[in-house]
Amino acid sequence: MDDNAKWRPRARSDLVFRRVGDEWLLFDPAARKIHVLNLTAALVWSYCTGEYDADEIAAAIVDEFGTSGAADQVAEILRRYRHAGLLHEG
Amino acid sequence: MRPRRLAFRAGARIVVASVAAELAERAARLYPDYAVQPGSHPAAIHLSASGEGGFRLQAPGRDEVAPGAAYALGLLELTLAEMLLQDLVPLLPLHGAGIRGAGGAVVVAGPAEAGKSTLTVGLARRGYGVYGDDIVLLDPDICRLRPFKRLLKLAGPPLERLALRPGQGPFEDLVPDASLFHPADLGTRWAEPAPVVAVVFPVGARSREPGLHPLGGGEAMVRLLGEILFRDAAAAPEFATLAACLADARFYELALSDLTAALDALEGLLGQRAGGSAAH
Q1: Residue B87: band (very low, low, confident or very high) from pLDDT cuts 50, 70, 90
Q2: Test the A interface: residue of B196, B221, B250 with most A CBs within 10 Å
Q3: DSSP category for residue B127
Q4: In this predicted model, what pLDDT tens digit does every residue of A14-43 receive, in sequence order?
Q5: What is the share, in percent, of chain B residues with pLDDT greater than 70?
Q6: How far apart, in whole angstroms, are the C-alpha atoms of residue B46 and residue B50?
Q7: Beta bridge partner(s), residue A16
Q8: Which are the contacts of B171, defined by CB distance < 8 A and separation ≥ 6?
Q9: Chains A, B: CB contacts under 8 A, how many?
Q10: B202-235 burial, b if ≥16 CB within 10 A, otherwise e?
């Protein structure tokens, strides 16, 4: 298992996560930016508490949606969150 | 000639303006719903005659000379609005109009000249209660829209489109092509607090077919954050308040190419007329 697999993503505490209408929104006050999340991304975000690694999050997604290929999907979503600076590093 | 003292209260504090006598009568009518007796409170705003036909307005953070009465009265109206709004914390002021229907409140948001006042006055004339045509207040504690009881203002072509007479209200002959209306002048009243059920953004005729066009919550929030007044719109609490209070709202763009059709579309959103406080 590599370091990335053990990584347990944790959301930055200053971000605000809310549903508005039919969309899930993540507001980054530091960047003055609103990210619009689809349902899967929103569910992944709700697991970014620092308690779950990517495999555990993917398993939760499979439980929720019963879809295959969740691991790749979760990895891509987490990569995007990380790239956008929405997660705690380290 | 002694200036006249006028006092207004929208929250806990009383704002007193010492107004040049020749403008006092008109100034007293700017915010009739907030007018109170000044008592012994010191004046925070001073508007005095200055030079030939000019006026000087002094207030915290503001010291301006107005070349004429119309400009001076407009400056006083703006200064009073700012001070009254500062006193209404924790209410969140939004640059937008608001109308009350059976299911709740509909906010019409957008920049100056977007058509907010035209739509508000048009619906007021159809009997709907109103929250304001330029500034409305969101109460974060109960997630209800509240009125900011500032006279509704229309000028130029929109008056003709709604078959209204120019020159009504405190500005009268000073700004002949503009009119200010209390809701009672239009046969309606200030609306009671209600949850926001929809937010509508008027758009130009060329960009959209007539009628309402659904908009995503994310796009709507981006636009609405830009309409928060006197607060840091990029602050997390402001976003959280807006998002919490609009979680179940619907969002639309509304083409204004045909005013009657636009009013009909909004009326469809509003449902039956509802909820006003006693008219003044």
Answers
A1: confident
A2: B221
A3: T
A4: 999 999 999 999 999 999 999 999 999 999
A5: 95
A6: 12
A7: A27
A8: B26, B70, B73, B74, B178, B179, B180
A9: 59
A10: bbeeeebeebbbebebbbbbebbbebbbeeebbb
* B224's tokens: 């609405």
Q: Given CB atoms, is B239 within the 8 Å cutoff of chain A?
A: yes
Largest Cα separation within chain B, whole Å, is 58
- Contact status, residue A49 vs residue A10, Cβ threshold 8 Å: yes
> Which residues make beta-bridge pairs with B138?
B92, B145
Contact criterion met (CB below 8 Å) for A82 and A10: no
Distance CA B172, CA B126 (A): 24
DSSP secondary structure string, B9-29? -SSSSPEEEEE-HHHHHHHHT
Cβ pair A25:B240 closer than 8 A: no
* 3-state SS, residue B180: strand
Is the per-residue pLDDT at A10 higher than 90? Answer: yes
Q: What number of CA atoms fall less than 13 Å from residue A42's CA on the CB side?
A: 17
ipTM of the complex: 0.82
Residue type, B243: A
Find out whether A8 and A50 touch, Cβ atoms under 8 Å.
yes
- Least confident window among B87-91, B114-118, B239-243: B87-91
Name the residue in chain B with its Cα closest to that of A14. Answer: B236
Predicted model pTM? 0.90
For B:171-230, CB contacts with A below 8 A are 216-218, 220-222, 225
Rounded to a whole number of angstroms, the distance between the first and last alpha carbons of chain B is 31
Residue pointed to by tokens 């370091």: A3
Residue B249 forms contact with A (CB below 8 Å): yes
Give A34's contacts in chain B (Cβ within 8 Å).
218, 221-222, 225, 239
At residue A47, the 3 state secondary structure works out as coil
User: How far, in Å, are B3, B134, B141, B229, B263 from residue B75 at the CA level?
Assistant: 17, 16, 32, 18, 32
Structure token pair of residue A37: 């999340």
Looking at the DSSP bridge assignments, the partners of residue B178 are B155
